[in-house]
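User: Can you help me understand a structure? I only have the sequence.
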Amino acid sequence: MNDYGSRLWEIFFEVYEGLPRQGPGNRRCTERALRLCVGLPRASMIVDLGCGVGGQTLHLADLTTGTIFAVDNHAPSIERLKATLAARGLSQRVQARVGDMAHLDLPPESYDLVWSEGALYNLGIGKAMRICRGLLRPGGFLAFTNAVWRKENPPPEVKASFDLDYPDMGTIADVVTDIQHGGFELIDHFTLPDEAWWDDFYSPMEQRIIELRRKYNNDAEAITVLDQLAREPEMHRNHSDYYAYEFFVARRPAIT
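Assistant: Let's start by predicting it. Here is the structure, written out as tokens:
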């Protein structure tokens, strides 16, 4: 979507910011990934990179007892997350802040877990590994999701869609190589189930698009944007066998 004008982004955020999540994932997957972080300190220091409005941040807060620093570059999403944290009495334990993942104002080698769902690709996975490794204490964990190809020769509409946002998207093996070259030990990985795409993401997205179609009924430009956004869940219905989101869990080696 990078080649669209400002009106697309206006409507895009009107659709996405009201969703429970801004990408695939669910609590069950968060729990499964956390279970792979064997030896994670009870009162962990955690960074959630590219947190959006904090769907996974809230799950992390429920499932851990440590301190969480949630970072995203979109200020309205952070303000929404701050309001949610305040309403749930979590503001002391979870700090939400506006920040650039490429230039984080966070102390190096100070965190037990770096978490990121569907955001590291914005940096390029190789660069993301360097940044995440620099944040982690020796022995610290990295858990992240990333889009991957499952089959070769995807339909043109699928290839074109991913080329807009993630032209360097690779396979699971490609990401594993980047993890290992980045100085991490891969612990395990698993594919997000289909319900992780629909329950908190595509189903509420489609409902939100219906609502906005009514709101913008006489606005041809807005309707065109909504038509574009509606193609994403429809593409997933038709072609999800060609791509997936994979959850990777790795560890920075401890000093021996």
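Now, to help you interpret it: The first strand starts at residue 45 and ends at 49. Residues 6-201+229-251 form a domain with the Rossmann fold fold (CATH 3.40.50.150). Let me know which part you'd like to focus on.
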